Amino acid sequence: MDCQTRPNTQTPRSMSLGLPGIRSRLLLSFFLLAGLIVFFGGASLWVMERTGKAHIAELQDQKLLLQTIKANQMQHLALLKLKNNWPTYPSNEREAILDETRQRQQQIITTLSQFTLAAKEYDEALALGQQLSVMSGQPLRAPHMTGMISAIDNLSLRLSGIGLTHLDAQAQKNSKSLMQTLLWLVLGSLALIVLSQTVAWAVLGRHLLKPLLQTSHKLSELAEQNFGGNSPNAVNRETLKINHALLSLEAQMSALTSEQQQDELTGLYNRRSFNQLLKQAWHKAVVKQHRIGLLLIQSDQAIASETLLHLAQRLLDFDVSGEHFLARLQQSQLALLLPDRDPEACIRIAQSLNQFVLAANLRAKAQSPRLTVSIGVANIQPVRQLGWDTLVFQAEEALLSAQNRGGNCSAGANQ
To answer: Are residues 35 and 139 both part of a single domain?
Structure first.
C-alpha cells in the first residue's frame, strides 16, 4: 500500500484566534497597563504630596523663626533709639514708641510659644514683655533700659543658634525623606516595568506582534524586489520629522530652564537663582579663603512695577568691575552679590550706587521727589562653621540701619 504524506494544515494558535479574539486581547492588555499606570501614578502622587506638605510646614516654621529674629533686632534698635533720644521726644511720642515695642514683643512671645526648642527663650521674651508693660513714657528722665537691650541682644544670638539647629535638622530630615521617595520610585518603576513587559509579551507578543513581524519580513522582501534594495523616500521624510521634533523639544526645554532662573518682571536673577549663586560663591570663598560681599538695595519710596523695571535697567548699566550678580529678591528689594571683594570696596560701590540712582532722576510718580535707595552692606570671610545665610542676615541688619538714618544712604553691618 502506498503511503501518502498528508500536508500539515494545523493553524498556529495565534492565527486561530481571529480578529475578534485579537481585539479582546488588545482591550484586556490596554486596561491592565492603564490600571498599572494609574495605580503607580496615584501612589507616587500620594508620596510626593505627603512629603511636600511636611516640607512646607517646616519652611513655615523656619519663616516664623526668621521673622522673630528680625523683630527682636527691631526691638533692639527701637529701645536704643528711645534711650538715646528720651529727653528730646514729647511724652506722647515716647508712649507711641513703647506701644509699638509692646505689640512687637507680644508677637515675639506668641511665635516662640510654638517652638519646643525655644522654651528658655520664650521665658526670657515673656519677662521682657512684662518689663515693657510697666514702662511709662511720662517721666522726664529715661528709665534704665541697658539691661533690657543687653537681654534682647543675647536673645537674638540664641535665636540665631536655634535657627541653625533647626536648619540642620530640617536638612537631615529632607535628605532622609528624599532617599525614601527615590527608593519608592525606583522600586515602583521596576515593578511597573516587569509587569508591563509580562503583560505585553503574554497578550501582545504571542498573538499579535509575532504575526506582524512575519508579515513585516515578507513586506521587506517584497520591497527589496520592487525597489532594488533602496529605501522608500517616506522613511526619510519621517526621519526628518522626528529630528525636527527633537530639536523643537530641546529648544523648549532650554527656554523653560531660562524662565526658571529669571525674574519675570525685571529679567534679573530670581531669589532661587540668587540662593544657588550665593551658595556656590560661599563654598568657593571657603576653599580659596576669599572674602565675599553683599549689597541689599531697597527703594525709599513705594514704587510701581514700571518704576522698578527702570531702576533695574539703570543698575544693569552701573559699572561694576569684576565678578558680580544682580538679583531681585522681593518686591522692590534688589541684591548685588560681590565675590572676592574687601569691605572698603563694597562700601565704595554702595556709595557710588546711591549717587548713581539719585542722578538717574527716576520718580515713583510724576510729581514725586527723585527716587532714592537705602543700601545695606555686608562683607564676610566665609568659614565652614558659618552658614551662607549669615551674609544675608548681616546685610538685612545693615539695610535696616540705613533706613533708620533717613534713607538715601548706605550702611555697613558693623556701622
So the answer is: yes
Q: Give dist(CA 172, CA 192) in Å, integer.
A: 30
Which three cell numbers, joined as nine digits, stand for 8? 500539515
What's the count of helices (H) and strands (E) in the chain, helices before strands? Answer: 11, 5
Q: Give the residue numbers spanning the domain of 65.
A: 18-227
- What is the rounded CA–CA span in Å between residue 195 and residue 173? 33
Residue whose grid cell is 508693660: 133
**The three grid cell numbers given for residue 304, joined into one nine-digit string:** 510701581
What are the 10-residue block averages of pLDDT along the chain, 415 residues in total? Answer: 42 49 66 75 77 77 82 83 82 85 88 81 84 75 75 82 77 78 78 72 60 63 54 58 61 54 89 94 94 95 90 92 92 94 95 94 81 95 92 95 95 77
In the sheet with 373-380, reading across from the earlier edge strand, the strands are: 325-330, 333-339, 292-299, 373-380, 410-412
Domain check: are 205 and 302 in the same one?
Answer: no
For residue 333 the three cell numbers come to 528689594
Alpha carbons 306 and 312: distance in angstroms, whole number? 10
Give me the count of residues in the chain: 415
CA-CA distance, 404 to 407, in Å (whole number)?
7
DSSP code of residue 319: -
Domain presence at residue 187: yes
For 162-229, give the DSSP string: HHHHHHHHHHHHHHHHHHHHHHHHHHHHHHHHHHHHHHIIIIIIIIIIHHHHHHHHHHHHHHHHHHTT
Pairing of strands 292-299, 373-380: antiparallel
Please, are residues 333 and 274 in contact by the beta-carbon 8 Å criterion? no
Query: 17, 207 in Cβ contact below 8 A?
Result: yes
Comparing CA positions, the residue from 262, 324, 337 lying closest to residue 297 is 337
* H or E, element range at 121: helix 119-134
Give me the number of domains the chain comprises.
2
Q: Which residues contact 114 (CB under 8 A, 6 or more apart)?
A: 61, 64
Same domain? For 223 and 315 the reply is no
* Cβ atoms within 10 Å of 206's Cβ, excluding its own: 15
| Amino acid at the residue 415 | Q
The dihedrals phi and psi of 118, each to the nearest 5 degrees, come to -115, 40
Q: Specify which residues 339 forms β-bridges with.
A: 292
What whole-number distance in Å separates Cα of residue 303 and Cα of residue 305?
7
What is the residue whose three cell numbers read 512629603? 51
Strand partners of residue 294: 337, 378
